[in-house]
Amino acid sequence: LSPFHNQSPLLSTERERERAYLQTYTTSNMLARSIARSIARAPASSYAAVAFQGPSVLFRSFSITPRNMGDEKIVHDMVHFKTSTNKHPLGVSKTVVGDKPIWENPMHHSVWTDEEVNGVRKTHRPMEDFVDRLAFSGVKLCRWSFDTFSGFRFGELTESKVISRICFLETVAAVPGMTAGMLRHLRSLRRMDRDHGWIHTLLEEAENERMHLLTFVKLKKPSYAFRTAVVATQGIFMNLFFVAYIASPRFCHRFVGYLEEEAVKTYTDIIHEIDNGKLKHWQTQPAPQIAIDYWHLRPDASMRDLMLAVRMDEANHRDVNHTFASLRRDQTNPYVEGHSPAATQSISGNKQ
User: Fold this and answer.
1) Which neighbouring-strand residues pair with 72?
2) pLDDT tens for residues 154-168?
3) Is the CB of residue 199 less than 8 Å from the CB of residue 181?
4) What is the rounded CA–CA span in Å between residue 314 and residue 307?
5) Contact 327, 202 (CB under 8 A)
């Protein structure tokens, strides 16, 4: 069998397993003999080509991919695994959207209630020391620079400005969770010790921010200039955050906590504009289908409903990162089992 053959037949009886073994053994012998004959007949000059291109040349030439094994037919439809008719190897269940089965998103994400999304408030955690002041100053400098050079703070607020701002910032917001999660993952491997539950929360944050981007990009077709700016910003920010997290995880989590405070302010201002300003048409404009599926919104959800859900996500990230910044990195993540007294005490410093 080809080493690239990634579909395993379901063999229900001992006889079928024996037949598969014999067929595999016979096929392997035939493959070995064919390779030996080809090498023996080939001129010496061709060995260099095979060595240069690698052994995959031989496998591509002689691999045999069975389509039927016993009574079970394996479908090689070359489609995304979500819509494949094959069984998931881990038994993950599918849901049905319309007439098409899809996989559930395996990454945990919160589905908020109406009370939660409408109860978000702008908050600020008081600065206590030099690290806090440095993180807060860095966030303020980043926001002022972006608002100035992007033109967001000048002229009228328009839908195009809002979407461009959100798409760009979400490409940055998804970096800290993945970077911190990766570094803690590597640290756990080096120390051969548990991580105390931080990794999963950090990766969930990164995935959640990425889903924000994939949702809003449905409303915008990024230009080449926009994409170039994203690539440059991601390269700079990723490397800076990587080095900063190695030096001081506390500073980085406090920085993200203050950054998410600004995100909550931004989305609150956008919701205000939807209710009273230039974006009133978002009260009735349908939300993208990807948002309805991800946040489990009602089928007729509007852009305003989407903004409420995203703002709640950002408020959650704000509280989580402020909590992490107040913990030693060997302490247990209090969000593994919900809000513990440590988390409550850390967040209690937030003031209206």
Assistant:
1) 69
2) 778 788 889 988 999
3) yes
4) 11
5) no
